[in-house]
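re: that complex we talked abt at group meeting.

here r the seqs, copy pasted straight from the sheet so there may be weird spacing, ignore it
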Amino acid sequence: MQVRLFALLQDRAGWSARELPLPADSCLSALDVWNRLNLGPWSASLRVAINQNLVEPQQRVHPGDELAFLPPFTGG
Amino acid sequence: MHLRIALPDQPFHPFGCLERWHRHLHDQGHSGSAAEALFIGRVRGEAADGSDLEALELEHYPGMTERSLEQLAQACGGRYQARSCLIQHRVGRVLPGEPIVLVAIGADRRGPAQRCCQELLEALKHEAPFWKREWHVDGSSTWITGNTPL
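got the structure back, here u go
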């Protein structure tokens, strides 16, 4: 599985993408992955995308997924 | 609805884009809309803290951003029966005074065109994965964490 960080999160962590081995029978959620990566306390303002679709942080991740943690959007 | 989404990483001229868009619609057999609402957003010369702004940097999530914009435009355009929709949004480094976003909505009446344009603009500000970073004149930078008031 690939984990991607954007904007402020990328600067804080010092990396933008990382491969994370995930057993086929893993029951980890996106939030579990966040906690394992020591990225700090979870904030309700953050959003999660799996394979570029917004999902709830409790959504389960699978091997091969692209998991992204997204700070609040500020376009336009 | 005719839809075009572009995320240029170089400065663009809104009225040149509109002219090309109208020509494209004409070439596609589009008869032209009786009402068209436009929004052009430009980068302010001031940072959020009131200091002079050197530049704004726009980061996006390639692939997801384009798809999000398309979904937002289709949903919003469908609600207002828009006939055409152009979204042009800068990515990369944008200087004060340069255009950052252009939204053009064609519809049969001014009401739906204007409402659709405003609603789509608000949607793309809050629902499409873009992030702004302010670059200050001293070389430091700050990620923006919220949108400016309406």
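couple things i noticed - The mean pLDDT of chain A is 95. The interface with chain B takes residues 4, 6-8, 11, 45, 49, 52-53, 68, 70-76 of chain A (CB under 8 Å).
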